[in-house]
Specification:
Number of strands: 0
Helix content: 55-70%
Strand content: under 5%
CATH superfamily: Globins
Shape: globular
Distance between the termini: 34 Å
Structural class: mainly alpha
């Protein structure tokens, strides 16, 4: 069976998904403030590498771990509602790009699996 990365369409598909995803995130007043001082080009590159790694792609993610990478955001009030909003935007993005519900659910499960680390609990 092929990896989730391959089933999603590989690097070009993840690139398109991350770019569309961040447009949705930045337009959402519930969560956009967490990105006010973020270099979005750099952020998108990190997200693409992370998603490639966690979906079985040929990328070794070298960024901060989830707890360290989100520590500043937790101090700003990041909570479960915000993480849920991000995951909802990710799912909506994948659906918009024609990804099957099975793969959307698989990506959602991966995203939810790091929720406690993101929220440092």
């Amino acid at each position: 069976m092929s990896s989730l990365y391959d089933r999603l369409g590989g690097a070009s598909a993840l690139d398109a998904a991350v770019d569309l995803f961040y447009r949705k995130v930045l337009a959402d007043e519930r969560i956009s403030r967490f990105f006010d001082d973020v270099d979005m080009e750099r952020q998108a590159a990190k997200q693409k590498a992370f998603l490639a790694m966690v979906t079985g792609g040929p990328v070794a993610y070298t960024g901060k771990d989830m707890r360290e990478g989100h520590k500043r955001l937790v101090a700003m009030g990041l909570n479960d509602e915000h993480v849920t909003a991000v995951i909802e935007h990710l799912a909506a993005t994948l659906r918009e790009l024609g990804v099957s519900e099975a793969e959307v659910a698989e990506v959602g499960a991966v995203a939810n699996s790091v929720r406690d680390d993101i929220l440092n609990r």
